[in-house]
Each structure stands twice: as structure tokens, then as C-alpha cells.
Amino acid sequence: MPEQVLIQQLRELERDGLVTRHVYQQMPPKVEYGLTEYGVTANTIVDVMCAWGRDNIALRQQRGEDIVLLENNDSES
């Protein structure tokens, strides 16, 4: 993902109240993002989307797509 796209998406998430942004006054520059309480409410939606993706990897691979599961950490709900 191009850096500018990531920056734009993070700014939109911050504007919408889903994440907070903390800028550290140091060199090299450092910025951290965290979920707000409102952002945490999206976890259920993201969990369902992840489960759907995991459930459909085999089908997509059978269709010839080069799909690899990079991480399989179920979130604690």
C-alpha cells in the first residue's frame, strides 16, 4: 500500500473517531495510533470479515488465486 494511501486512510479513521493519533516530539519522528472506545466497537465486524476470509481461502485457491493466510490470531471477544 502506498504510504500516502495509508496516511489518508488513517486520517479518515481519526476524523471519524475510530482511532487516536499521538505524535512524539523526537528524532526520528514517531507517531502512534490506537483504537478509541468507538473504534473497538468495530471489532465484531472485523472478526466476522476475517472468519469469512479464512473460510473461503480454499475456494479461492481452487480457482487459481495465490492466497496465503498470513496470520491466524483469533481476537479475544
TrEMBL record:
UniProt domain HTH hxlR-type: residue ranges: 1-61
GO MF term set: DNA binding
Protein known as: Helix-turn-helix domain-containing protein
Cytoplasm is among the record's keywords: no
Keywords, comma-separated and alphabetical: DNA-binding, Transcription, Transcription regulation
Signal peptide boundaries: none
PROSITE patterns from the UniProt entry: HTH_HXLR
Domain of life according to the entry: Bacteria
Family matches, as SUPFAM superfamilies: Winged helix' DNA-binding domain (SSF46785)
